[in-house]
Design brief:
Blueprint lengths: L3 H10 L26 H10 L9 E6 L8 H11 L7 E6 L6 H13 L6 E5 L4 H7 L2 E4 L9 H8 L4 E4 L14 E4 L4 H33 L2 H15 L5
Parallel strand pairs: 1-2, 1-4, 2-3, 4-5, 5-6
């Protein structure tokens, strides 16, 4: 199982297999998702593509996910509308993800943005080819999924890049963060809670976010790397074959 959440789900569905379940968290390629290895030029290319103003001091909030309702875009727009009521907070929000043919949903989100008066502050930028650069450009990453994630790759990859994350407290992604130290978790379908968590991170300023980001990167490197995944998986095979660990 790729998370404790998934393992528990399998136990409930197939109790006879309880003793045969091994939990091995999905891993992040920390060589690729390493802030030191993202060339500034890649960040600049993405900044221009996303039309983020040069030398912009507003906190950049990124929701990286395909455009589908269960990824929480509606709730993110509603939370952004609540943030907009606090003029002391400086921020902008990016939805980075492929529509995959869901043109009606994309149009709905665009309409919600306009209805809340958030044009120019919340943007849809479509598919992103360079996710390490996207995380390097972000100040805050959000993953407010309305359905459980089996693992939560966004939280792990963003954490590896040293970015604090706000996740839904359902599914496997809650296991990736350390509450209040590397990020925050909020209930699904709860824009006020999402807005409050984002406000905390915006108010923390660059130094506060950097501290959380460093803690997040250390946690990923300790618990959620591709190398650890490979080692643990091979150990299962060794055990089945009767080889010494």
């Amino acid at each position: 199982a790729n998370s404790s959440y998934t393992a528990e789900h399998v136990r409930k569905e197939h109790p006879f297999a309880r003793s045969r379940i091994v939990t091995i968290p999905r891993g992040v390629d920390i060589d690729r998702f390493d802030p030191e290895k993202v060339d500034p030029f890649r960040r600049e290319v993405l900044r221009r593509s996303w039309k983020v103003p040069e030398n912009d001091t507003a906190a950049l909030i990124v929701l990286p996910a395909r455009m589908t309702g269960w990824k929480g875009h509606r709730e993110a727009v509603a939370a952004a509308a609540l943030l907009a009521r606090k003029p002391e907070l400086s921020w902008r929000m990016i939805f980075a993800g492929d529509a995959q043919g869901r043109t009606a949903y994309v149009e709905e989100i665009r309409q919600l943005i306009s209805t809340h008066g958030l044009d120019g502050r919340v943007s849809l930028v479509g598919h992103c080819e360079d996710m390490p650069a996207a995380f390097a450009l972000a100040d805050i990453v959000i993953a407010p999924s309305n359905e459980p994630e089996a693992f939560g790759r966004v939280a792990a990859e963003a954490g590896a890049m040293g970015v604090p994350v706000v996740v839904s407290m359902i599914g496997g992604q809650r296991e990736i963060i350390e509450e209040g130290r590397t990020g925050y978790s909020v209930p699904p379908f709860d824009p006020p809670a999402l807005a409050e968590a984002m406000a905390r991170l915006i108010s923390a300023g660059p130094e506060g976010r950097k501290t959380m980001g460093l803690a997040a990167a250390a946690r990923i490197r300790e618990k959620f790397t591709t190398a650890a995944l490979q080692k643990a998986t091979l150990a299962v095979y060794d055990g089945l074959l009767g080889r010494p660990a």
